[in-house]
Amino acid sequence: MFGWFGNKNKEVDINFANIGVDMHSHILPGIDDGAQNIDQSLILASHFSNLGFTKLVATPHIMADYYRNTPETIGRALDTLQEALLKNNSALNVQAAAEYYVDEAFEKKLNQKELLTFGNNFVLFELSFINPPQNLIDMLYRIQDAGYVPVLAHPERYPYYGSIENYLQIRDSGCNLQINTIALTGYYGPEARKMAEELVDYNAVDFIGSDMHHPKHAAALKKSLELPRVQKLISEGLLNKSLL
């Protein structure tokens, strides 16, 4: 599993490191639908390094029906990756939080204040891609009342919201929005691309993330970083840099 970090040449201009920290990836080995083993984790890590990233926040899924991760399972996977990075002489700094699916288990963890966070008590969460949640705005206020700062993952991928006005309302309710930059390449289709573009154009993007699961995402990420809208986000400032 060694040798992934032998090439010191960056794939793209080092200015892309100005993004700061990638705060949404599935690089931890064997605990969700991302990297399935440590070799795959190291391949993804090498892609991040070659793109100029020095720090990541890994965010494995926590979903009651599929990925029943806990702080313990996430911590063990993080330890495994950190040890492997050290053996491979990689300077990549990987920390961990989670990507929560909003379900009954999430609400229980919220009530007990047991959520994994990153940065300034940020909590990354996702919604169903098919069915709109009930009372999302109320949930956002509950998250904040518990002392957390909500961050909605990949808003461009929820077709039922349909218009930028709905996302502006969500953001005005105290929720940060994190787009997947690869959506701007058309990776998820034209509708997701159009919404991602609108979110950028309305200055409604707080974080960008790779949501990297596998090398195809890495290739799309490289392409996305060259897009004018991504360069606009980087130049105007993102909360990613606050995580350094």
Name the helicity range.
25-40%
Which word captures the global form?
Answer: globular
CATH hierarchy class name? Alpha Beta
Uncertain stretches: 8-12
Architecture per CATH nomenclature, i.e. the level-2 architecture: Alpha-Beta Barrel
By secondary-structure content and strand pairing, the structural class works out as alpha/beta
Please write the string of helix (H) and strand (E) elements. HEEHEEHEHEHEHEHH
EC number: 3.1.3.48
Catalytic activity: O-phospho-L-tyrosyl-[protein] + H2O = L-tyrosyl-[protein] + phosphate
Pfam family, one: CpsB_CapC
InterPro entries: Caps_polysacc_synth_CpsB/CapC, Pol/histidinol_Pase-like
Description:
There is one protein chain. The protein is an alpha/beta fold and 244 residues long. The protein has one domain (23-243): TIM Barrel, CATH 3.20.20. Helix content is 36%, strand content 13%. It is built from 8 helices and 8 strands. It has helices at residues 38-50, 71-87, 104-111, 136-145, 164-172, 190-201, 215-224, 228-236; strands spanning 55-58, 61-62, 93-96, 99-101, 122-126, 149-153, 176-180, 207-209. Strands 2-4-5-6-7-8 form a 6-stranded parallel sheet. The chain has a two-stranded parallel sheet with strand order 1-3. The protein is globular, with a radius of gyration of 17 Å. It starts with 37 loop residues before the first helix and ends in an 8-residue tail after the last helix. It comes from Pedobacter duraquae. It is an enzyme of class 3 (hydrolase).
